[in-house]
Amino acid sequence: MTELVCVGAVAGAYGVRGEVRLKSFCAEPEAIADYAPLQTEDGAHSYSVVLTGQMKNGFTAHLGGVATKEQADALKGLRLYAPRDRLPALEDDEFYHADLIGLEVVDTGGTVLGRVKAVMNHGADDLLEVYGPGMKATVLIPFTRTVVPTVDLTLGRIVADPPEGLF
What we know:
Elements: E1 4-14, E2 19-24, E3 38-39, E4 46-47, E5 49-55, E6 58-63, H1 69-74, E7 79-83, H2 97-100, E8 104-107, E9 112-121, E10 126-131, E11 139-142, E12 150-152, E13 157-160
């Protein structure tokens, strides 16, 4: 498990006074400010966060040290991370996406299907994007208890029972 968890990303500048458009990846989107200061993945920069408004797909915010539109524009695409110990404790059968990425996926018979490349959500359930050797394209499997009965972070693997013909 990683010590840093990605909690948001800068979508670009908002206005001319250094505000940014901020996308939150938190279960409760406004909680992103509670985990501040947020930092870059390499830890080189750290930013305080003050939410100033809400907009479609995110918030407007002031990041510490960002005072001009040009500085805000330069941060577009920047992912912001919080140390795991600042985040709320998870209940059983809840996982941070960052902990799932890279896990080996095996079927219920133990055959390796691939590894988790990404976790996506397009409005319904989460989907695991799985890739592996010999695959021409990635495969999306629903991240539901029925299809994915076991996630073992200690062993670094997921046991999946994908629908017939998916792999």
